[in-house]
Amino acid sequence: MTAEGETKYRFMDGIHTGALQLRLAENAEEVAAAQALRYRVFYEEMGAQPSAEMAAAKRDFDRYDAFCDHLLVIDHDRPAGPSQVVGTYRLLRRAVAQKNGGFYSADEYDISAIVDQPGEILELGRSCVDEAYRNRATMTLLWRGNATYVSHYDVPVMFGCASFPGADPAQHALPLAYLYHFHLAPTKLRPVALAERFVSMNTMPKEDVDQRAALREVPPLIKGYLRLGGFIGDGAVIDTQWDSVDVSIVVKTDLVTQKYMDKLS
Q: Fewest 10 Å CB contacts: which of 40, 105, 157, 217?
């Protein structure tokens, strides 16, 4: 790695829990290891449909991987090689997206309200953890990494998409209504699903929503964003390739303290 690269990544140094280390990918081989983890989780475990190229390579990839930063959790107790990467997040800042054709979320949502915000913004995506590592230690490391990254680049707003498993929105009517009525983003920050993909989340009146029952059906990743004070965009999107129903997430980082992030699971 060059001296310039060492300087770029130095702000992530020293984040460890036992044998687990948190840092940014430093070369193409480490990005490929993150893609291999994503393939195992998204395609082999969760049933997404890979392209022929992805299936042959056993990696999940797209054009955004080449210029995003890739946050990694590495288990140094595992044999050296790609299997050491047991958790990942993909991070895309405005300054980088502007040079490379925009944000991934724009394929599903009108994100102009977020893009119009002053300062840096950060898109979070491709979050996954190896099944054996879905515990407090790994998730805390990933959120510490996000917090450190946000602080380093002075990011006031994070956003991205998160999914419900299964591409039938009727199966998720209760939690979608709960998110719509109780966590809808303010207009000045609200993403809206593109008209041709818009699926209404207003599936029942607010007074009919059983909040406790609904929250039990909200996937853990979305619950994590809600604990950070996160908001939800208007409209869900069906993603047949991923066999999922997607929602848009927005988090104002001034609502998040480092201490709180350290406690997240």
A: 217
